[in-house]
Amino acid sequence: IKEIEAGKVVVVAGFQAVTEQGDITTLGRGGSDTSAVALAASLGAERCQIFTDVNGVYTADPRVVTEARQLSSVSYEEMLELASLGALVMQPRAVEFAMLYQVEVEVGNSFKNETGTIITGVVNMEKHRIVTGVAHDLNVVRFAIFDVPDKPGVAKKLFKALAEAGINVDMVIQSAMRDNRNDIAFTTEENELQKTIPIVEKLVQDIGASGMTCGTNVAKVSIVGAGMQSNPGVAATMFEALADEEINIHMISTSEIKVSCIIDQERIKDAVRSLHKKFSLDLAD
Predict the structure, then answer these.
(1) Fold observed for domain 2-122
(2) Neighbouring C-beta atoms of residue 222, cutoff 10 Å
(3) pLDDT for 17-26, tens place per residue?
(4) Average pLDDT in the 234-248 region?
(5) How far apart are CA 65 and CA 228, in angstroms?
């Protein structure tokens, strides 16, 4: 800050940092974005501009949906959901930081002198826009544990062991009880597969379940939009779009502004295109 006040142009290596012990380290994926937002917050900047190789945030991955449209603006909450659900234009922790410190962020193209997408706390909702975008994620693995004893503490034991191993669990489903036993299914990231398998195998024995399976041939497709909070039937419309394409849904997860489904990975592009069309996301602002 002193250098800036002295009128100098300061260049910060956003991907590198120094630990409390003085060791040089890296910040991981999205570290540069997070550093930029943190600096903007510290400096009290009106806006943090992040330049990348895309024009901004789109209604879907333009490599999958040719009709995908660049959004002029998107709320912090919507962007956080999109980033967490597979949209790669920004990393979730950078969006979290921007939302925490109310830093307005513009994502734009390094090679074009055009306004990108503004990520902010106040967004002028388009009249027709209930869903803001469709996101998809291929980095998904689905585990199923069969005949789990129906008694207190079993779920805690399972998910505590995964948490202690640093494994992030996303979606969870417990089936209806039969003979005092349930089936539990959950998803995590595919790159955690080899670490997760031995933990689940041991737990199957410890809790007295009959067995487990895991599948990597699945993917997650999601719709996100702040307008979903005040418009009933959005989930039903999503399920209808997938049914029309004869796409089977394995798992469902919802929040106030998103609906996610686990489906067969081979149908993910069909699902994204169908949902984009169903919610008229190709229409201009």
Answers:
(1) Carbamate kinase (3.40.1160)
(2) 26
(3) 777 888 888 7
(4) 97
(5) 22
